[in-house]
Design a protein that fits this description.
- The structure is a single chain.
- This protein is α/β, with parallel strands linked by helices.
- It has 22 helices and 12 strands.
- The protein folds into 3 domains: 4-171, 3-Layer(aba) Sandwich (Rossmann fold), CATH 3.40.50; 182-435, N-(1-d-carboxylethyl)-l-norvaline Dehydrogenase, domain 2, CATH 1.10.1040; 440-478, Single alpha-helices involved in coiled-coils or other helix-helix interfaces, CATH 1.20.5.
- It has helices at 12-23, 35-45, 57-62, 78-87, 105-117, 130-136, 146-159, 177-207, 211-221, 229-239, 249-252, 262-273, 278-291, 293-302, 311-314, 317-350, 356-362, 374-383, 394-402, 404-417, 422-435, 441-452; strands spanning 4-8, 27-31, 51-53, 69-72, 96-99, 121-128, 139-142, 162-163, 166-167, 456-457, 464-467, 475-477.
- It has a 7-stranded mixed beta sheet with strand order 3-2-1-4-5-6-7, sandwiched between helices. Strands 10-11-12 form a 3-stranded antiparallel beta sheet. The protein has a two-stranded antiparallel sheet with strand order 8-9.
- β10 and β11 form a beta hairpin.
- The chain binds 6-phosphogluconic acid.
- 6-phosphogluconic acid is lined by residues 102, 128-130, 186, 189, 259-260, 262-263, 367-368.
- It catalyses: 6-phospho-D-gluconate + NADP(+) = D-ribulose 5-phosphate + CO2 + NADPH.
- The active site is at 182 (proton acceptor), 189 (proton donor).
C-alpha cells in the first residue's frame, strides 16, 4: 500500500531513508534547511520514485495530506527541538511527527508530552543500520501511542529489513520507549565491539597472528554461534591493507575510540535504574581510557608489568583460538543479558509494555547488532516471559557453562600476561557474582552500619537492625 510522507533533514541518513521510502512506492515530500540538499537528492536519485521537493517549511507542510506524516532526520538535541518548534505550529490535530534521530529518550518523553498536549502524535523512533541500513532496510524501533502506530506503522514496516518474511519493525511501546531501546541497542553495540576487540588483542598478543590471519579466524567464527554483522565486518576490517603504508589497516589507525554518546547514556540510565550493565560500562570506560593519550604515554614509560610473551599458549594454537571464541561467546551472552535486564527495568519504571521477544526479533536484521543468536533470545522471552535473566535459560546456561573453563583460562591468562580484557573479566565477575551463594555485600552492610548507623537486615529474621558499635556492641531492632 503506497502512502505519503514528509522527510525533513536530508543529510546522508535522511536522504537514504527518503530514497528507501520512495523505492517502496511512497510519495516522499522533501525538505531541508538549505535547499541545495533537496535539489541534489532529486537530481541524483529522482528516478527512484515519487519525490516532491519543497523549499520553505510552509510549502513542506502544505504539500502533505492530512493526517500528515512527517519524519525528522536531523541531529539529536537542540537541532531536533528547533525543527519541531518550526513545524509543530503549522500542523493540525491528528498529524504525526516522527523523530528518527538518536534522541535521548528523556527528550522524547518531554517532546511527546508537549506535542500530545497540542493534539499531535509524536513518534520517537530508533533507526539502526547506519547509512546502508537506512537505504536498504534498517531495523526500526518506533515509540508512541497505539493510535500513532496505526497511522505510520505500515509505512515504517514497508521499508524495514526483512528476516524470515517478517519486517524488522515493531511498535515498541509508548512515549520514549523506542528511543530507550535504541539507546540500549547502542550500549550493547559498544559492549559487543569491546569484546570483539579484546578477542582480537588476545589472538594478536597470544599467538602473534597477523591482523589478516585474525580476520580469517573471525570469518570462521562467523559460520557458527557467533554469526553476526559485527563479527563479519571485523573480518573485513582486519583483512584490509592500508594503501599508503602497504601494512595492515588496523595498524595505522590511531588507537583512540571515539563516541557520540549513546553508550554513555545507556550507562547513565542503568545507574539510575540500578541495573548492573557492567559489560556496557566497561566498554564505555575502555573507550575513555583509550582517549587519554597523555596518561597512557606517561604510564607506558614507567609502569612495570609482565613481559607479553605467551609461550605456553602458542604450543596449542587451535586450542587457544577456540578458548578465546568460547570466552567471547560467553561474555557476549552476559552483555546481551544485561542489556535486556535494563530494558525490563526501564519498561517497568516508565510503565512501558515492551515485548522483549518482538524486540529481539526486530534486531535480527537491519541493525548493527544483528546476530544469529537473537533468534534464541526471542525464543526465550516467548517461552519464558518471566525469566529473571537470560543466563538461566537452558540454552544460554548450557552455552556459557560449556565455555566456562576456557573463559576462566583466558581471563586468568590475560591477567598473567598483562593484556587488558575489561569486557571478558567483568562479564565473568558478573556471572560469578550472580551465581554466588553468599556475597561480601554482607560485610559492606556491616561497615555501613558501623560508620553511619545505616542498619542491616539479618538472614535469620525479619526487620532492620543496628549494632551499638561505639558502646557495648548490643544489637537493637530499628524497624
Ligand atoms: C546504529 C548505530 C548508530 C551510531 C553509530 C556510532 O544503530 O546504526 O548505533 O546509531 O550512531 O554506531 O556510535 P558511536 O559514535 O557512539 O560509536
Amino acid at each position: 500500500m503506497s502512502d505519503q510522507i514528509g522527510v525533513t533533514g536530508l543529510a546522508v541518513m535522511g536522504a537514504n531513508l527518503a530514497r528507501n521510502l520512495a523505492r517502496h512506492g511512497h510519495q516522499v515530500v522533501l525538505h531541508n534547511r538549505s535547499r541545495g540538499r533537496t535539489d541534489a537528492l532529486v537530481e541524483q536519485h529522482g528516478s527512484e520514485g515519487d519525490f516532491v521537493p519543497t523549499g520553505s517549511v510552509e510549502e513542506f507542510v502544505g504539500a502533505l495530506q492530512r493526517p500528515r506524516k512527517i519524519i525528522i532526520m536531523v541531529q539529536a538535541g537542540p537541532a531536533t527541538d528547533a525543527v519541531i518548534d518550526e513545524i509543530a505550529p503549522l500542523l493540525d490535530e491528528g498529524d504525526v511527527l516522527m523523530d528518527g534521530g538518536n534522541a535521548l529518550f528523556t527528550d522524547t518523553i518531554r517532546r511527546t508530552e508537549a506535542l500530545t498536549a497540542r493534539g499531535l502524535h509524536f513518534v520517537g523512533t530508533g533507526i539502526s543500520g547506519g547509512e546502508e541500513g537506512a537505504l536498504n532496510g534498517p531495523s526500526i524501533m518506533p515509540g508512541g501511542s497505539k493510535e500513532a502506530y496505526e497511522l505510520v506503522g505500515p509505512l515504517l514496516e514497508s521499508i524495514a529489513a526483512v528476516v524470515d518474511g517478517e519486517p524488522c519493525c515493531t511498535h515498541v511501546g509508548a512515549s520514549g520507549a523506542g528511543h530507550f531501546v535504541k539507546m540500549v541497542h547502542n550500549g550493547i553495540e559498544y559492549a559487543d565491539m569491546q569484546l570483539i576487540a579484546e578477542a582480537y588483542d588476545l589472538l594478536r598478543q597470544g599467538l602473534e597472528l597477523t591482523p589478516a590471519e585474525i580476520g580469517d579466524v573471525f570469518a570462521g567464527w562467523n559460520e557458527g554461534d557467533l554469526e553476526s554483522y559485527l563479527i563479519e565486518i571485523t573480518a573485513q576490517v582486519l583483512r584490509h591493507t592500508d594503501a599508503e603504508s602497504g601494512g595492515p589497516f588496523v595498524d595505522i589507525v590511531l588507537d583512540e575510540a571515539e563516541q557520540k554518546g549513546t553508550g554513555r547514556w545507556t550507562v547513565q540510565s542503568a545507574l539510575d535504574l540500578g541495573v548492573p550493565v557492567s559489560g556496557i560500562a566497561e566498554a564505555v570506560f575502555a573507550r575513555a581510557l583509550s582517549g587519554h593519550r597523555e596518561q597512557r604515554q606517561a604510564a607506558q614509560k614507567v609502569l612495570p608489568g609482565p613481559d607479553r610473551q605467551w609461550d605456553e599458549q602458542v604450543a596449542d594454537k587451535d586450542a587457544f583460538i577456540e578458548s578465546v571464541r568460547q570466552a567471547l561467546y560467553a561474555s557476549k551472552v552476559v552483555a546481551y543479558a544485561q542489556g535486556f535486564d535494563q530494558i525490563t527495568q526501564g519498561a517497568d519504571h516508565h510503565g512501558w509494555d515492551i515485548d522483549r521477544a518482538a524486540l529481539a526479533k526486530i534486531w535480527r536484521g537491519g541493525c548493527i547488532i544483528r546476530a544469529r543468536f537473537l533468534d534464541r533470545i526471542s525464543q526465550v522471552f516467548t517461552d519464558e516471559p518471566d525469566v529473571t535473566t537470560l543466563l538461566t535459560n537452558d540454552y544460554f546456561r548450557g552455552a556459557v557453562s560449556e565455555g566456562q573453563e576456557s573463559w576462566r583460562q583466558v581471563v586468568a591468562g590475560a591477567a598473567r600476561h598483562g593484556v587488558p580484557v575489561p569486557g571478558f573479566a567483568s562479564a565473568l565477575a558478573y556471572y560469578d557474582g550472580l551465581r554466588a551463594e553468599r556475597l561480601p555485600a554482607a560485610l559492606i552492610q556491616g561497615l555501613r552500619d558501623l560508620f553511619g548507623a545505616h542498619t542491616y537486615r539479618r538472614t535469620d529474621r525479619e526487620g532492620s537492625f543496628h549494632t551499638m558499635w561505639g558502646e557495648d556492641g548490643r544489637e537493637v531492632q530499628t524497624g
